[in-house]
Hints:
5 helices; two-stranded antiparallel sheet; mainly alpha
Amino acid sequence: MDKEILIQYCEMKEEIKDLRRRIRELDKFLANLPVVADVVKGTRKDGTLGPIKITGIPNPEYNRKAGARERYRRLLEVKEAELLELTFQAEEYIESIEKAELRIMFRLYYIDGFTWVQVALRMNDMFPKRRIKYTEDNCWRRNQRFFENVGSCREET
């Protein structure tokens, strides 16, 4: 396992957010269906000839949007199951890291989705007595160094 698991996990979370957004948009559309109207010439109920106003919901568009929503929901279920499996793999990978400090940083960044600025702030809250404060840059650099060192160790074996 390597950084790819963590990247794949983050990408999968974003994909699920996108699917949920699409489902919300379709739900909103289907809840407020557009009503179409047309005027035709014909015989009214009272037997007179003249214009008749016809209103209704466009069935083909409704069916297409309802079908798309159901496909997105099924896809979302599959993606959520995949995300759960990726979560376990990402957690296992993070747990395999020796330094607790790095494990915390990686959980905050990769699992919780914090930015490096938020990671630095959270780390400073967790370790207030640390002589050198965490910054966005040094958290990011620790991440980079870790993966550079892991990559060089793999090439040697």
